[in-house]
Design brief:
Blueprint (H helix, E strand, L loop, with lengths): L6 H8 L55 H6 L31 H7 L8 H15 L3 H7 L3 H4 L18 H8 L16 H9 L5 E9 L11 H4 L22 E9 L8 H5 L2 H11 L12 E3 L8 H11 L1 E7 L5 H8 L59 E5 L4 E5 L30 E4 L3 E5 L4 E3 L8 E6 L4 E5 H8 L38 E10 L3 E10 H16 L10 H5 L9
Parallel strand pairs: 1-2, 1-4, 2-3, 4-6
Antiparallel strand pairs: 5-6, 7-10, 8-9, 8-11, 10-13, 12-13
InterPro entries: Mito_lipid_metab_GTPase, P-loop_NTPase
Protein name: Genetic interactor of prohibitins 3, mitochondrial
Length: 599
């Protein structure tokens, strides 16, 4: 949909009391709701009426690098960009506590709005005079014999290498995230996370006929970052089933939408690309179980495990995006690596590629005018096509991308859209601000084996997480695959650490002071579906996933007769009436989350 950018559209966008879509106006697109009369946005160009035109040819007015020089741009009066290239927020210059704020008094903004003029330096003129005086006293034949050329010694015109077109500055929030890592006030501007319904309405405004959704999943806590039933919530996107007659895709409302799964940050799973590729059958089966009933019917041939930092399989994803064309949507939760993956798989430098052509849209082939602004109710305008555009910023701050970022590639062959991340775990809300970055796994963890004996517990983060085995006479081996510091202590001390009545000596407590009152039992972790073989011992294991942080692997070796003896004792206890309860140990009696059922 193409419409003129006018005050009438902005009024309708920022007044929530009027008629809205069924799900309401998402706050992540309009963070300044209620400030419409106070906040004034600085648009890129003067609003004008734009009429849609259908053409029978594919000529487009594309801005190519090198076509406009720096001198031509300097002569024009520059203005702030319509949206920030780093986070996608709409530009505004009035409220520093809102997204998209530009400080017009900052040097970097003033330099962009009023660039310095290039003038001939005085020392060049003086050097030319000295060289001319020397050349008058030397014969031209003598200069030639020495290997000099008089025409190259005198600078008649100041020929300077023309730099590339300068990029527009980013907002204050993005600038602080890049240079100060969210330590300043503007770097901590609150972010409103979108909902699946708002993302669905945003994708429905796509002007492209062919759309592809990339469901980005984090490998650190795989598969907890999977969005259940995403294909259904985004509008009945078909997944190819195992039926041999199933089609690869189908059109719905004159539009084709497909979806694939991308597991990012795969370098956290293994040291080499070959070791991670060997895990693909296991990852595919885990994803099949996480999809529920749908997982047994789909093929899951559209699953890729990539690493943007190491370049594993990113080239294949980039070529798929290029050959597919249309609109590619990056969908996922916060801090799963969407923006980092976006930078690696975006097809750069292909503006003049022979395969580049204007892709079909839902409303036909349209030739954009010079001052066209493609604005929808929820979809921001796209940028101009360039070979090497400014990419979204990459930061560990949850919710860095504030609004959809549309960057076209090729000769309008398609575009790649980075969508804001959905809300993930709220564990960071119970952690001190200076320790919240420690919850993010930034590199592969090689854990040390922790031997937890009866009467002991494993404490993570100084009491933020406590793992206490309830089985007696069993030694557990635990492996901490999280960035949190671990500590083995007795059950009595572990309960006190979590209740914040006692502090650890060398280990820091990262929890907030009032966190103990909100901690609850996470439930039992039973090993189910075991295949009993005729062996004298059994090795039982379970992985406890911590959303957004990692996982802890627990291993225990028990005798086979102990397992069967435990089952006989449990059945005998259930049949006995009025049996006295077995006395608990003093450590488990103090545990507020202790359950009587044994593992």
């Amino acid at each position: 949909m193409r419409r003129a950018l006018s005050s009438r559209w902005l009024t309708r966008a920022f007044h929530t009391s009027e008629a809205l879509p069924p799900t309401g106006l998402p706050l992540f697109l309009c963070p300044a709701v209620g400030l419409a009369r106070q906040v004034r946005f600085a648009p890129v160009r003067t609003p004008r009426n734009i009429n849609q035109r259908r053409l029978i040819h594919e000529d487009t007015a594309i801005l190519k690098e090198g076509q406009n020089t720096v001198d031509d741009i300097s002569e024009e009066k520059r203005q702030l960009p319509f949206t920030c290239s780093g986070c996608g927020a709409f530009t505004q210059t009035t409220d520093s506590h809102q997204l998209g704020y530009y400080d017009v008094a900052a040097k970097r903004v003033r330099t962009w709005l009023d660039p310095p003029k290039v003038e001939l330096q005085e020392k060049d003129i003086q050097e030319n005079g000295v060289i001319n005086n020397v050349l008058k006293s030397i014969d031209s034949d003598q200069l030639t014999a020495l290997g000099f050329d008089a025409s190259t010694l005198v600078v008649e015109e100041r020929v300077a290498a023309r730099p590339s077109i300068p990029q527009a500055p980013v907002c204050e929030r993005c600038h602080d995230l890049i240079h100060h890592n969210a330590k300043s006030a503007s770097g901590r501007v609150p972010m409103f996370h979108p909902t699946v319904e708002s993302l669905r309405e945003t994708i429905e405004e796509s002007p492209h006929k062919y759309n592809h959704i990339y469901h980005v999943i984090d490998a650190a806590d795989f598969p907890m970052s999977l969005i259940p039933r995403l294909n259904v919530l985004l509008g009945d996107i078909p997944l190819r089933t195992r039926n041999r007659r199933s089609r690869a895709g189908k059109f719905l409302r004159d539009r084709q939408t497909e979806m694939s799964f991308i597991i990012t940050r795969s370098d956290l799973l293994g040291p080499t690309k070959q070791s991670v590729d060997a895990l693909m059958p296991y990852l595919r089966e885990v994803l099949r179980d996480a999809l529920g009933r749908l997982g047994n019917r789909v093929r899951l041939g559209n699953v890729r495990c990539v690493s943007a930092s190491h370049g594993w399989w990113t080239r294949d994803v980039k070529e798929d995006i290029w050959h597919r064309g249309g609109a590619g949507w990056m969908v996922g939760k916060v801090n799963v690596g969407k923006s980092r993956l976006f930078e690696e798989v975006y097809p750069k430098g292909r503006l003049d590629h022979p395969d580049a052509s204007v892709g079909p849209t839902a409303i036909g082939r349209i030739q954009p005018e010079e001052e066209d602004v493609d604005v929808g109710d929820l979809l921001p305008p796209a940028r101009k096509a360039t070979n090497y555009p400014a990419m979204p910023i990459v930061s560990s701050l949850p919710g860095t991308t504030a609004s959809p970022i549309r960057i076209p590639f090729g000769n309008k062959k398609g575009e790649l859209i980075d969508l804001p991340g959905l809300a993930r775990s709220d564990l960071d809300l119970f952690v001190k601000e200076e320790h919240r970055q420690s919850l993010i796994m930034k590199k592969r963890v090689v854990p040390e084996q922790a031997t937890v004996k009866p009467g002991q517990s494993l404490v993570l983060g100084g009491g933020l997480i406590r793992i206490t085995p309830s089985s007696e006479n069993i030694i557990f081996l635990m492996y901490n695959f999280t960035p949190l510091e671990d500590h083995i202590t007795s059950d009595e001390k572990a309960v006190e650490f979590q209740a914040q009545t006692k502090t650890l000596g060398a280990q820091k407590t990262i929890s907030l002071p009032d966190t103990a009152a909100t901690i609850k039992h996470a439930g039992r972790k039973n090993a189910v579906g075991l295949n009993i073989d005729r062996l004298p011992f059994r090795v039982l294991s379970v992985d406890i996933l911590i959303e957004g942080v990692g996982y802890v692997e627990i291993v225990a070796q028990v005798r086979t007769r102990s397992i069967y003896q435990q089952r006989e004792d449990q059945s005998a206890t259930e049949t006995m009436e009025g049996a006295e309860e077995k006395p608990k140990s003093s450590a488990l009696a103090l545990d507020p989350f202790e359950v009587s059922t044994k593992v």
